[in-house]
Amino acid sequence: MTTTASSAFTLMVQGTASDAGKTTLVAGLCRVFARRGLHVAPFKPQNMALNSAVTSDGGEIGRAQALQAVACGVPAHTDFNPVLLKPQSNTCAQVIVQGKALSVVEAKDFFGPGARHYKQRVMTAVLDSFDRLRQAYELVLVEGAGSPAEINLRDNDIANMGFAEAADCPVILVADIDKGGVFAQLYGTLMLLSEAERARIKGMVINRFRGDIRLLENGLTMIEELTGKPVLGVLPYLDNLVLDAEDAIVHHSAASSDERPLRVVVLVTPRISNHTDFDVLRLHPRVELTMVHAGSSPAHCSAVDLVILPGSKAVRDDLAVLKANGWKAWLDRHLRYGGKLIGICGGYQMLGDVIDDPQGIESTAGSSEGLGYLPMTTTLEAGKQLRNVTGSLSLGGEPCAVHGYEIHCGQSSALVEHEAPLMLATESGAPQPDGMVSTDNQVLGTYLHGLFDSVDACNALLAWAGLHDSQQAVALDELREASINRLADTLEQHLDLELLEHFMQPNTQQGNHHEQ
C-alpha cells in the first residue's frame, strides 16, 4: 500500500447506530496502519459529546479523536474534529469549529429546515480541515456520527453520507451484534440510503460477537446476497478495554465492598463533562466508585469517604439540580462526619460562594449562590481557557508531578489571601497557582481535568481522602496503550485487510468537493 501526501488514501467508518463501534474500529485501524509504517490521521467531521480534549494547537476536540490520535502516534490537532457540538440543554448546544467556540445554537437551527445556511458554513471548515490532513498524511481514517439512516437529518448532512459524497471517499458499515438484530441493522440501514449512497458502501463489519462463528456463517452468506456487499470481518467481543469514552458513562467499579476499599461517589449532573477524569478510579483495585445521578434523592446514598463534583457544561443549572434534590444538606452532613470533597472544573466553581454569569454564557444571565465550602467567587466570561498543563501538586507532604488539561469559561478569585494553592501549574513560563484546599483540609478544588491520571498524584489524592496502604494507582497511559494494541491485533486477525486496502483508493478528484 503506497501513496503520496497529495493523494492520501481515505476510508470512512459509519455505523448502523450510535455505539455500534465506530470509534473503536477507527482507533484500531489507526494503530494497524501506523504499525505498517503509514503516517495516519483520524478525522470526524462532526461530533456531539461533552467529553473533550485540548489539542497541541490550543483548541478543543472530541475525546474520541484524541484517543485515535494516540493510536496513530501523532499529537491531537483541531483538524481531527473540526465541528464539535457540546449540549448545554435539551434544545441547544455550543458549536466549536476548528477548536474554537463560535456560538450557541438551538437544535432547530442546526438540524431543522432552516439549517442549510449554517451547515454550508461549517461544511467549509470541515472540508478545509480534511484537505489539510490529506496534504499532510498518507492515510485519513474518517469516523461518522450516529447512523447515515437518520433520514430526518439527511438534508445538509455533514457527518455521514453528506461528507462522504463531498469528499468522495469509500465507506464501510459497522453493526453491533451484541444488541441483537444485526442483520436487520445492516439491511435496514442500506435500504434507507439512496442508490448513490449504497454504492459508496464497500463492505460491512459485524462487531462484538460472542460464541461459535459457525452458527453465524449462513447469515453472513445471506446478508451478502441480499445487499451485494461483502462482510469484511466479524469482530469478537473484547472485555476490559481501557479506552476513553466518547460520551457514555461507565457505572461499574473494579473493587468489591468486602475489600474495605475507599468509597467514592461521583455526582452525575445533567450536563456532566469529561467524566473520563474518573477512569483511573474506576480501575483502581482499592476504590469502590459509584456514579450517582444528582437528579435523584440522596436518601438512599450510604456514607462514603470521598465525594467528587465533576465538570459541567451548565454549571449554574447543574448546581440548581443538586440543591433542588437535597444534596447540599447531604454534603453538609458528609463533611461534618469527616468526609472529603473534591470539585473539578465546574464542580470547583460550585464549591465557592457565588457564580456570576452576567453575559448568559452558559444559561440565562444571572448569579447563583454556591455551596460555600471554599472562599472564592467565579465569573463566567466569553472565551474559553484551553491549555495542557503540567505542574506540581502539594497536599501537605512531598510535592509530586501532576498533568492534565483545562477547559473552562470561568475565572475564579480567592476571597482569602492566605489560602494556599493546591498546585503550581505550568504550560510555559512561570508557574501559576491553581485550585485550593479548605483550611480544615476537607475540601479541595481545581480546574485541572485528568487530576488522577498521574500515578503519584493519584496516590497522593487518595491518601488525602483516606486510603492509607501500599496499593499503587494504575498507570492509565500504559493500560490505554496495551488496549489499543490488543484491539489492533484483533483487527489483524479478524478483518480482511487486503480487501479493505483495495477499497481505500486515493481520492483522485481533488477539489471537486469545493463545488458542493
Structure write-up:
- The chain is α/β, with parallel strands linked by helices.
- It is built from 15 helices and 25 strands.
- Strands 13, 15, 16, 18, 19, 20, 21, 22, 23, 24 and 25 form an 11-stranded mixed β-sheet that branches. A 6-stranded parallel β-sheet has the order 2-9-1-10-11-12, sandwiched between helices. A 4-stranded mixed β-sheet has the order 3-6-7-8.
- The chain has 2 domains: 12-242 and 481-501, P-loop containing nucleotide triphosphate hydrolases (Rossmann fold, 3-Layer(aba) Sandwich), CATH 3.40.50; 257-470, Rossmann fold, CATH 3.40.50.880.
- α1 packs parallel to α2 (63-72) and α1 (22-35) packs across α14.
Can you summarize this structure?
By secondary structure, this protein is an alpha/beta fold. The protein is built from 15 helices and 25 strands.
